[in-house]
Specification:
The chain is of the alpha/beta class. Helix content is about 45%, strand content about 20%. It has 13 helices and 16 strands. The strands form four sheets. Strands 1, 2, 3, 6, 7, 8, 9, 10, 11 and 13 form a ten-stranded mixed beta sheet that branches. Strands 4-5 form a two-stranded antiparallel sheet. Helix 2 packs parallel to helix 3. This is Polysaccharide export protein. InterPro entries: Mannosyltransferase_CMT1.
Length: about 400
């Protein structure tokens, strides 16, 4: 019987090694070419989407604009006030109502809003601009009885941040109901943060998905390329972002829509600017902002009022919530200009790198542990009382947030 010696065996293996090496080289080349082609195609879509502007003729919708402000003098004077005036002129002063609630600012926010009030008066724009002398210090020094006060790990009873913000947003909606009582109604509510925006941004946002949505949000930036509002944005599966840069999402449905620069289906969003139909706010039981219950918050669980409102909105299941990647706003002029360059706000290298980072993160990271912690705490809370139920569980995070004189803090 013939037995091959070591040299013969090595000779037999040599062609196999060459074949394997060639196979891997060909595979790597094909994968590289495929990735490059994908990036070129996506970049083409991005350029087309950003340069193909929809008609600038605004819809004939009547728009109620709601906004809350705190220490925003700089952005008000540099951009926001003028942008509101230009928007009112574009929509038609008779089609706009502006409701602003300012809460105890210590800079020149009050004066800036009073200047806006005078300018709106010249344009004959209906409005309610409320400036409040009640500061954060006043709020947290008040009686500790009532909703929003919680026993913190520091052994103190403190005012939760989210119920406080929810109450301010609801105050900005109060004129809507006073007007309704007088037979004056609106088609949409435009919620505006302290952002740099243009009339074109607003018209684009209102026209998201041909105007069919439970809510449509912009994409917001403070320090590009990182997006800002991580607290409220959840993908179509209710998951937090897999990365804070484009294409952001873990869900394939949300991620692919972002690649196409088409309206992105999400479970919730806010991100600087939001358009919503008024119908849920006109219902017999009107939609309103809220925080999670104090008893659940005691388990070190919190959720954004800007996420929970989508969980509560009956239109969400019917019409969906969308993030519009064509509408990008900034919390400062630099951020806005960086996401509105003359050519493209994403380079080919950024796209190539981000697509791979997204793939790797989806492969090697998971939200399982975070989700498990929240599920366990909510389940324990539900057993405490048969009436305990939180429909916005996808909004919840492992945090406790309280108000401070100069802002807010984690505890």
């Amino acid at each position: 019987m013939f037995l091959p010696n070591a040299q013969t065996y090595r000779s037999a293996l040599f062609p196999r090694r060459i074949l394997r090496r060639r196979f891997f080289l060909v595979f790597a080349l094909v994968f590289l070419l495929w990735s490059t082609a994908e990036v070129i195609l996506i970049r083409h879509r991005l350029l087309n989407a950003d340069t193909t502007h929809p008609a600038t003729t605004p819809r004939r919708d009547r728009v109620y604009i709601a906004s809350i402000h705190w220490n925003n003098e700089e952005i008000l004077r540099s951009h926001w006030n003028n942008a509101i005036l230009q928007l009112a002129e574009a929509l038609g002063p008779e089609n706009v109502y502006l409701s602003v609630f300012e809460s105890g600012s210590w800079d020149g926010t009050k004066m800036a809003l009073q200047e806006l009030d005078r300018s709106l008066d010249i344009l004959c724009v209906a409005r309610n601009i409320t400036v409040s002398e009640k500061t954060h210090h006043d709020e947290i020094s008040a009686s500790t009885v009532g909703d929003g006060w919680i026993d913190t790990p520091q052994g103190r009873k403190e005012l939760r941040r989210i119920p406080y913000l929810a109450s301010l947003r609801n105050l900005s909606l109060q004129p809507l109901y006073a007007l309704l009582a007088n037979g004056i109604t609106f088609d949409r509510i435009l919620f505006l943060n302290d952002v740099v925006f243009t009339t074109h941004d607003v018209l684009n946002l209102i026209d998201t998905n041909q105007g069919e949505y439970a809510a449509a949000c912009s994409l917001d930036f403070s320090k590009p390329p990182l997006y800002y509002d991580t607290f409220a944005l959840r993908d179509s599966l209710g998951k937090e972002h897999v990365m804070q840069t484009w294409p952001y999402f873990r869900s394939s449905e949300s991620r692919n829509a972002m690649k196409y620069m088409s309206p992105v289906p999400v479970a919730s969003c806010w991100n600087g600017m939001v358009s919503m139909p008024t119908s849920p706010f006109y219902a017999d039981l009107p939609l309103a902002f809220r925080g999670v219950s104090n008893s659940l918050a005691l388990s070190h669980v919190e959720g954004s009022e800007c996420c929970l409102i989508h969980a509560d909105n009956p239109l969400t299941r019917e019409k969906g919530v969308y993030l519009n990647p064509l509408v990008r706003v900034g919390y400062n002029p630099t951020a806005y200009s960086l996401v509105h360059p003359a050519y493209s706000w994403l380079s080919m290298w950024q796209m190539y790198q981000s697509l791979w980072e997204n793939r790797m993160r989806r492969m090697f990271t998971s939200t399982f542990l975070k989700d498990w912690v929240i599920r366990r705490r909510v389940a324990s809370w539900e057993t405490q009382d048969g009436g305990n139920y939180e429909p916005g569980q996808f909004c919840l995070i492992n945090e406790m947030q309280v108000l401070r004189e100069n802002g807010w803090a984690h505890v």
